[in-house]
C-alpha cells in the first residue's frame, strides 16, 4: 500500500463546467510535522489565547514606542 497524502486537490476539467475537489485525510500511521504540533499547541486552547493576548500587548507597545520616537523627532524644537 502507498501512504496517503494529506491535503486538498483541486482540478478543473478542460471541456466541462464541473470542477473536481478531492480531500484526503492523513493516515493514522503518519505523525504531524514538528511545526504542525508546535502550532497546534501554541495556537489553541488556553495557551493559544494567552499567546494571542501577549502578542497583542507586545504589538501595542512596539507601535506605541515607534510612534513616540517618531513624534519626538518630527516635532522637536530647533
UniProtKB/TrEMBL annotation:
Alphabetical list of InterPro entries matching this protein: SMIM1 (IPR031744)
Membrane-spanning parts: 49-74
Keywords annotated in UniProt: Membrane, Transmembrane, Transmembrane helix
Name listed for the protein in its UniProt record: Small integral membrane protein 1
Organism from which the protein derives: Microtus ochrogaster (Prairie vole)
Classification of source organism: Eukaryota, Metazoa, Chordata, Craniata, Vertebrata
Amino acid at each position: 500500500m502507498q501512504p496517503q497524502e494529506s491535503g486538498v486537490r483541486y482540478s478543473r476539467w478542460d471541456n466541462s463546467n464541473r470542477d473536481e475537489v478531492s480531500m484526503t485525510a492523513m493516515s493514522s500511521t503518519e505523525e504531524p510535522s514538528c511545526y504542525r504540533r508546535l502550532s497546534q499547541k501554541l495556537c489553541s486552547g488556553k495557551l493559544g489565547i494567552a499567546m494571542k493576548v501577549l502578542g497583542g500587548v507586545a504589538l501595542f507597545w512596539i507601535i506605541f514606542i515607534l510612534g513616540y520616537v517618531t513624534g519626538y523627532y518630527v516635532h522637536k524644537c530647533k
